[in-house]
Automatic annotation (TrEMBL):
Lineage: Bacteria, Bacillati, Actinomycetota, Actinomycetes, Mycobacteriales
SUPFAM superfamilies per the UniProt record, alphabetical: Homeodomain-like (SSF46689), Tetracyclin repressor-like, C-terminal domain (SSF48498)
HTH tetR-type domain: residues covered: 6-66
Protein name as it appears in the record: TetR family transcriptional regulator
Organism: Rhodococcus artemisiae
Gene3D superfamilies, alphabetized: Tetracycline Repressor, domain 2
Length: 201
């Protein structure tokens, strides 16, 4: 029987993400990953060419953590797309320290795969193929941008709704994520309702 590898690409990505989640990028290093996996740092180069390739694997792991939203009912593709974006944003915000890393190292091959899958779904629901990629790119950018703002504490410049359940509390900190999500959903819906699908001629 062959000897089982001491480490795998998945294990390295998981260890790196755990370090970033806990200590941010300031705590990220090959030495700390190796320590977490009980190996020597140079052995990581048997699996990854360099640090940026590890960060790409971290970004991929976060993206693939996103739950898949069931296919929409007829005429409900807009709400489906909103739900997809909310799920991805929620996944990103489970790893706030990693959000800038996902933004910077999002693997293009995975993005093309996801765009291809979702373009086919939108086409099946009557969205012209010439507009499907535009919709996906625009909502993807909105999603990542919203997550970056929330994860880094950048406040919205519009009044956020104040949930009734926060009476007497520091509602800005206690409900900031919920309020930001409500604003995000409202922006998505406004965009999708106003977009010209180019199929009315």
């Amino acid at each position: 029987m062959g000897r089982k590898p001491a480490i795998t690409r998945g294990a390295v990505a998981s260890a790196a993400l755990e370090i970033i989640d806990r200590d941010g990028m300031a705590g990220f290093s090959l030495e700390r990953i190796a320590t977490a996996l009980h190996v020597r740092a140079p052995s990581l180069y048997n699996h990854f060419a360099d640090k940026s390739e590890i960060l790409t694997a971290v970004a991929r792991a976060v993206v693939l953590e996103t739950p898949r939203v069931p296919d929409p009912a007829p005429g409900q593709w807009r709400e489906w797309l909103v739900s997809e974006c909310v799920e991805f944003r929620n996944t990103l915000l489970r790893h706030p320290n990693a959000v800038p890393t996902v933004f910077a190292y999002f693997p293009e091959s995975l993005l093309y795969k996801l765009y291809g899958r979702d373009s086919r779904l939108l086409a099946a629901h009557g969205v012209p193929s010439a507009r499907a990629l535009f919709l996906l790119e625009a909502t993807h950018r909105m999603t990542v941008g919203s997550a970056v703002c929330t994860a880094t504490g950048r406040p919205a410049l519009v009044e956020l709704p104040r949930p009734d359940s926060t009476e007497g509390k520091d509602w800005r900190s206690a409900a900031a994520t919920d309020a930001d999500e409500s604003l995000f959903v409202e922006m998505l819906r406004a965009f999708l309702d106003g977009v010209d699908l180019g199929d009315k001629h």
